[in-house]
Amino acid sequence: MNDPTMTSTQTIRPEEAEFFAELAKDWWNTKGKMASLHEVNPVRLEFIRDAIDAHFGGDDRSVKPLAGKSALDIGCGAGLVCEPLARLGADVTGVDAAADNVAAASAHAEKSGLDIRYMAGEVAALDIGTFDLVTSLEVVEHVADKAAFLADVAARLADDGLLVLSTPNRTAASRLLLVGAAEAVGYVPKGTHHWEDFVTPEELEALLASVGLEVIERRGIAWRPSKGLHLSDDEAINYILSARKAA
Description:
This protein has one domain: Rossmann fold (3-Layer(aba) Sandwich), CATH 3.40.50.150. Helices cover 33% and strands 24% of the residues. The protein has seven helices and eight strands. The chain has helices at residues 14-21, 35-56, 82-87, 99-111, 146-155, 172-184, 201-210; strands at 70-74, 91-96, 117-120, 131-137, 157-168, 213-224, 228-232, 238-245. The chain has an eight-stranded mixed sheet. β2 (91-96), α4 (99-111) and β3 form a beta-alpha-beta unit. The longest helix is centred in the first third of the chain and has 22 residues, at 35-56.
């Protein structure tokens, strides 16, 4: 370990890293196996942008609200969040458990003309310091030890930093629709989700409090025929939240 403030618990499940590594080459295909991520990404980014403006007191008309700030995306996959953060002006680092994902992310960033640092492995084992913004989207449900993982996440957040997390809720609706129906029809790759590993908002807030973080805002990510995926008060399927270090 390079940083004594980080935990030594291994949070990466090797089988999860292997599963997502096999999807690396298809990650940027908007019509491929990761199409669902491309559909939800604008909704997540809408929340992130609003959280950035509210937390850092920026101008919501600015095209570079993260200029001069550092951002870390934990569980970055092939860079679907890292690239927009870089375009918002941040100095971005992406960390993922799967080296294949990091390779795909690096190649895509280079083709896009973006300077993003990508690293593979446990975030706790990497000597990368702290960040103004930390994001970790659809990740906590895949780790072996949620408390240890969130402690590692909190340790990467600067004292006045902003954290954004999203994850599926553990409800009867998410079991039926997100695990059952979505995987059955191929909307998400079969085996992506394990319902018993989902975290309720109340459980996640308690875990965050245990590592010294307080939630600022929480919204559901819902779907309706007339609106598609959108931010909502309905948290039955998925939710996204912002947090900061507790006073």
